[in-house]
Amino acid sequence: MKFTEEHLWLRIEDGEEEVSVGLSAFAAAELGEAKFIELPEEGDTVSADEQVAVIEGSEDALDVLAPLDGEIVEVNTRLIDAPEVISEDPQGEAWLFKMVLDDPSEMDALMSEGAYQKFIR
């Protein structure tokens, strides 16, 4: 699992070319209980740092930026009806979307979990 400075996690699923993207547990805690989420559309082509989603919580709202360049291939539509899952399981069932990266080697430049833990302290 890799992390961005914008508090997203990225995980390549075993045997798949897609990368799952979600909100870190730290960011989910800062957000408070998620009340509303707007997700990107499947098939959207996105560029790094482009806004792709919005999450509104009880404590804050968050613009989710694309972590890297690529195409959105799946969105977690369950979150539209049950956004509270983001608060309950941010690094598991509450993945936001899956994408195919234009250049998968760019993940190497992202933070490891240990580096991310130091970053948020």
Automatic annotation (TrEMBL):
Question: Which Pfam families does this one have?
Answer: GCV_H
| Keyword flag Lyase | no
- Which UniProt key words apply to this protein? Lipoyl
- Domain named Lipoyl-binding: which ranges? 18-100
Write down the Gene3D superfamilies for this protein, in alphabetical order: 2.40.50.100
GO biological process, any: protein lipoylation
InterPro entries in alphabetical order: Biotin_lipoyl, GCV_H, GCV_H/Fam206, GCV_H_sub, Single_hybrid_motif
Sorted alphabetically, the Gene Ontology cellular component annotations on this record are: cytosol; glycine cleavage complex
Q: Which domain of life is it from?
A: Bacteria
Belongs to which family?
Belongs to the GcvH family.
The name this protein carries in UniProt is: Glycine cleavage system protein GcvH
